[in-house]
Amino acid sequence: MNLEEAIAPQPSRLSITHKKIIAYVVLVLLIFASATMVVFEVFEYRHDYRQMTTYLREEDDLNAEWGRLLIEQQTFGSTSQIGTRAVTQLRMFSPPTADTVVISLPSLEQKK
């Protein structure tokens, strides 16, 4: 064995250390990519959760408005029912115009 062969690096040992370094670099890059994806997914989840909460609040508001509209519809429906029952069951009617008397109150300007 001469001096040059003893000093020269062994190709097999050098390639093994290079392979280890490359493997570590790839693993570190994969870990960073995985961490980035986790952060992105958490952000997306929170955004979607906020949007769902907004939609649920809007649904509650619309349900409340729907209930108010149903009450209003029943109120208007009962007015027409009262008029119909008054005519059919009690035989009530609107008086003719000849029997109608209009009473007007004196205005405040006439009193002065």
UniProtKB/TrEMBL annotation:
Q: Name one GO biological process term.
A: cell division
Keywords tagged on the record: Cell cycle, Cell division, Cell inner membrane, Cell membrane, Membrane, Transmembrane, Transmembrane helix
**Is Membrane found in the keyword set?**
yes
Membrane topology type:
Single-pass type II membrane protein
Q: Does the keyword RNA-binding apply?
A: no
HAMAP family in the record: FtsL
What PANTHER family does this protein's entry cite? CELL DIVISION PROTEIN FTSL
**Name this polypeptide is given:** Cell division protein FtsL
Source species taxonomy: Bacteria, Pseudomonadati, Pseudomonadota, Gammaproteobacteria, Moraxellales
Task: Provide the gene name from the record.
Answer: ftsL
